[in-house]
Amino acid sequence: MTYQDAISGAAKYSVLNKSFPAPNTDSKLAAKIAQCKAEGRPALVGYLPVGYPSVEESIAAAIELGKNGADIIELGIPYSDPVMDGPVIQKATEEAIENGFRLTDTFRATREITAACDAVVTVMTYWNPILRFGVDEFAREFSEAGGSGLITPDLVPNEASEWFEVSEKYGLDRIFLAAISSSTERLHMISEASSGFVYAVSVMGVTGARSSVNNAAHSLVENLRSAGAPNVCVGLGVSKREHVEEIGAYADGVIVGTALVKALQSGGPEAVGQLARELAGRQ
Amino acid sequence: MSEQLADAFLNPQESDSLKNAPGPYFGKYGGQWMPESLMAAMEELEETFNKAKEDTEFMEEFQRLSREYSNRPSLLTEAPRFSEHAGGVRFFLKREDLNHTGSHKINNVIGQALLAKRMGKTRLIAETGAGQHGVATATAAALFGMECVVYMGEEDTERQALNVARMQLLGATVIAVQTGSRTLKDAINEALRDWVANVENTHYLLGTAAGAHPFPAMVRFFHDAIGTEAREQIQELTGKLPDGIAACVGGGSNAIGMFHAFLDDRDVQIFGFEAGGDGIDTPRHAATINLGRPGVLHGAVTYLMQNEDGQIIESHSISAGLDYPGVGPEHSYLNDIGRVSYQPVTDAEAMDALRLLCQTEGIIPAIESAHALAGALRVANEWAKEDPEGAREKIMIVCLSGRGDKDMGTALEWFKLGKAIPSSSLTTGNTEATNERKAQKSEQK
Question: Where in the numbering of this chain does the Tryptophan synthase beta chain-like PALP domain appear (chain B) (predicted)?
Fold first, then answer.
């Protein structure tokens, strides 16, 4: 479904008609974030790509991540053209594809991780693999496997008519990205279109650990809150406990990616668990 | 998406004209599938472009530079000796190879560089396959005093080393992209990453009529002169419209520029030739429309070469400029409605046509353009087979999108050229020339 369908009235929801699905009352993400808030801490969101270095090891690493402090796991679907990822994740996902990653491995990973720990499992995916698989079919299988929502780095609400309908059908959360460059108008639209949380991109640029986290993230979170975003998690650039504390002071969740992939590269699932404990302030 | 465009979409003009389709969608193709980080830049670009094309001052400056700097209008040259190999169909070549920098790419680059200036951007980035677009962008950056960074697949920097040197000489920084398939699509990925990080001062000068809105409609607009001029020139020269027009299609910028003026001339057959590589029965090709499936890449829904998991498949072509697994969304649409016939041309067919043009007309075309020549030759010979007499009355215009100087390395290898005959061999050799000279000498005695 496209912009054009939205115009002809074929789409139930669209940016053009300013119609979005009602808030997801079954949202596992919202419930998890609420629980973290009640405990007086930000949610820790950890990213790892499925299939790197192998499907087995990626599942083992994600379970370690979930058992050692991550509240939400963001499973990355390896893609041939990852324009929003930096060199570390690019290299890892390229290797995953070379090692035979298949899209359906995502369902198995989701199922096994959900069974082994309390973390809520989301998927971070570029849109073409989902389109090719079938948006409805992917959502159905992912939801049956226990998944909670999709983070979509190259799908903006403007093109998401089909996803609005399908996500509502299966009770999945829609996590859209917000950027420092986003206009106030777009921040309102993104806040209304998202469920679970909004993913705030804290520095201009692609993923990769930065030495310090930009102050601009703080104002982006404030702007998203004024625009009505239910929860805001901040990503890109987090590698240390002090980043988590700094961002956790104003955001509902802190997203860590590249640092975890590096840990997995150098020390396997065990190192991922260790970094998770450190980031969560458990040691 | 701007209110203006939404309005244009909600109230389409009451006509069945295919011209001036504003985007963002062409049928079900196109759109704006971009990361949020770039949406502000896309909106700014769209707004600037919409204002500029209605602005007399902007258009006069664009046309002045096209005329005085790029060398427009380009010639339309008849190719009578080449026609003898095409069943007698009269061939005309739209000489984009005679533009400054040697290809059609300069048209779009001048237009977008002027827009960048209007937006206050001081840095131009670009992707390039064959290097033609990179050279054109480096040229415009030098002309406007802007910084320039060109992303080029590592594989392409090797097969087009001469163009790397040209860009460097023009003051551009050339980055050899080492990710993915190390060709055009990966150069675009890397340029997008650069743009996300530097969008404040940088304009991404996309070189083809693909990508997210407004690029496809905007790039077509800046290349519109190709077809508009050709349409006038052919009528001046022959008193009528052509029977067929042809262009090569990678992303499809020269093709959409060539086709646009003729879209509403329903008697003119339009042909787009894709890179068939080793052949479309092999996995090594770039015949996106012929064998691809619709999907999303680089900001638009369009035909893509992809596997069953939606991973983009590496394309293959002897021509770096056509080596792209996607295609401009308007081409996908023109294919589906049957207005344009898109057909594959293999490496071997293209190289044969390249040599034929060199030796019949004294024009060395780019390998990209040679795909259009080869395809048009095939169509013309089919016409001649059906109606040998009628074929002699027919006219075909081929867009000669670029010159072949940059492809000498490839030609050298393909045709095993470059070794001159040593003069010492002439005294003992038995070439015709030597024999003739000997005969003349004996007569004189």
Answer: 72-386
Q: How far is CA B339 from the centre of its chain?
A: 19
Nearest-angstrom CA–CA distance, A92 and B179:
12
Q: Which of B311, B315, B324, B336 to mutate to test the interface with A (most CBs of A within 10 A)?
A: B311
Residue A102: the pLDDT is 98
Cα A211 from chain centroid? 22
Is residue A80 within 8 A of residue B304, CB to CB? The reply is no
- Ordered by where they begin, the domains of chain A are 26-279 (3.20.20.70)
Cβ A143 vs Cβ A170: under 8 Å: yes
Angle between helices A161-170 and A135-144 (to 10 degrees): 30
User: A83–B189: do the CB atoms touch at under 8 Å?
Assistant: yes
Question: Could you tell me if A173 and A166 are in contact, meaning their C-beta atoms sit under 8 angstroms apart?
Answer: no
Q: Which domains does chain B have, with CATH numbers?
A: 71-104+224-410 (3.40.50.1100)
In terms of CA atoms, which chain A residue is nearest residue B296? A128
Taking an 8 Å cut-off on Cβ atoms, the answer to whether B197 and A204 are in contact is yes
The span from the CA of B55 to the CA of B224, in Å, is: 17
- pLDDT, residue B142, reads 98
**Residue B87: φ, ψ to 5°:** 60, 20
* Predicted local distance difference test score (pLDDT) of residue A207: 57
Q: Is B105 a catalytic residue?
A: yes
Which of A161-175, A200-214, B66-80, B97-111 shows the lowest mean pLDDT across its residues?
A200-214
Partner-chain contact B34 A154, CB within 8 Å? yes
Grouping H, G, I as helix, E, B as strand and the rest as coil, residue B298 is: coil
Encoded tokens for B410: 């490839």
Q: Which residues contact B35 (CB under 8 A, 6 or more apart)?
A: A83, A84, A153, A154, A156, A177, A179, B192, B196
Token pair for B423: 């003069």
Asked if B189's CB is within 8 angstroms of A82's CB, the reply is yes
**Above 90 in pLDDT, residue A24?**
no
Residue that has been written with the tokens 């970094």 in this structure:
A275
Buried/exposed code over B266-300 (b: 16+ C-beta within 10 A; e: otherwise): eebbbbbbbbbbeebeeebbbbbbeebebbbbbbb
Annotated catalytic residues of A are: 74, 85
CA dihedral A247, A253, A259, A261 (to 10 degrees): -170
Q: Kindly report the pTM of this predicted structure.
A: 0.93
pLDDT for res B160: 84
| B350: nearest Cα among B285, B292, B305, B293 | B285
Q: Per-block average pLDDT, block size 10, for chain B (445 residues)?
A: 49 72 94 94 96 98 98 98 98 98 97 98 95 96 98 89 94 94 90 91 97 98 98 98 98 97 97 96 93 96 97 92 94 98 98 98 98 98 97 98 93 93 77 58 50
- Closest chain A residue to the Cα of B311, Cα to Cα: A80
d(CA B224, CA B233): 14
Instruction: Count Cβ atoms below 10 Å from residue B53 Cβ, excluding itself.
Output: 15
Chain B residues close to A158, C-beta within 8 Å = 1, 32
Whether complex ipTM tops 0.85: yes
Cα four-point dihedral sign B330, B336, B339, B341:
positive
- For the beta carbon of residue B433, count every other beta carbon within 10 angstroms: 9
Cβ within 8 Å of residue A210, ≥6 positions away = A203, A236, A237
pLDDT, mean over chain A? 92
